[in-house]
Amino acid sequence: MSEKSWDRVPIDAQSIDAPLSLAAVFLVVTVAGEQAALAKVSSVLGELDDLVKTVGFRDLSGRLSCIAGIGRDLWDRLDSDRRPKELKPFAPIKGTVHAAPSTPGDLLFHIRSERPDMCFEFERILLDSLGDCVTVVDEVSGFRYFDARDLLGFVDGTANPTGLDLPASALVGNEDADFAGGSYVVVQKYLHDLNAWARIPTPLQEEIIGRTKIDNIEIDDDDAPRKSHKSLATIVDADGTEHDILRDNMPFGRPGQQEFGTYFIGYSRFLWVIEKMLQRMYIGDPPGAYDRLLDFSTPHTGTTFFAPTRSTLQTLVQATQES
């Protein structure tokens, strides 16, 4: 995915192009309103890279990494003068049948590793450092499921950009030079009705997803009366240019609680790309022809963040501490 060498040092914090992992933790917190809480959070954010190294050096092959995303409200508390051009709270979507809620979140920590215990240890130390300055509003431990499949049985993330296409799709460029190299991040926690999905014949499942189930071959549904999930999630602008996003989705679940889900996390150079994708899924194209996957997968969260580069994060933290 990039030319970095992973065998000498842990992966830097804020490395959006870090490899897809076997395990991940998605941690969303809100920050208390007191100035002391803001100062403490700033201090922890400033030490994030050191914490990655502290835990990551225990096993370099574990490839521990962490990305911190900042919500709009917290960003304004940290820097009231400048913010990424498109950063705003997640806008709820109300379709004729399904809706996407907007839920609270000041900070996202996307923790990744080849080892679940390293994700656990990093999160434990991180939350211990933050203390009562934050409140955890969502915490999900994800895992890779067989050959990168979701719990519905289909391969997930096939359309992810690679090589030189990755930064062009996922990282802000000269259109917002002050925040170049950062990325807009949208997260949603989906819970699946696996019993209802299992009652659907495989050919219909494939029609809904837009790919074959066993060998993951794309299905051409341009002439179909109703678009698949794959087609609705494909964004083309007025000039005919297709815009990709970087998905790092992970399955999660607790069979004993009948909880089965997918944690959607999308990194994008432009926030409007993910917003348009979700509009097409929930409203439909044409309107009313919504994504039939939503009949089986229900979103319980929806939050937007901006993940700055490590240098931008350090500048933001220093300015807050000095003020």
What can you tell me about this protein's structure?
The structure is a single chain. The chain is of the alpha+beta class. It has helices at 35-46, 48-56, 72-78, 116-130, 165-170, 194-198, 202-209, 229-232, 271-283, 310-322; strands spanning 23-31, 65-70, 93-94, 99-100, 107-113, 134-143, 183-192, 235-236, 242-243, 246-247, 250-254, 259-268, 297-299, 303-307. The strands form four sheets. Strands 7, 10, 11, 12, 13 and 14 form a six-stranded antiparallel β-sheet that branches. A four-stranded antiparallel β-sheet has the order 2-5-1-6. The two termini are 39 Å apart. The model has no long low-confidence stretch (mean pLDDT 94).
Question: Tags for this entry?
Answer:
323 residues, 23% strand, single chain, globular, 4-stranded antiparallel sheet, 6-stranded antiparallel sheet, alpha+beta
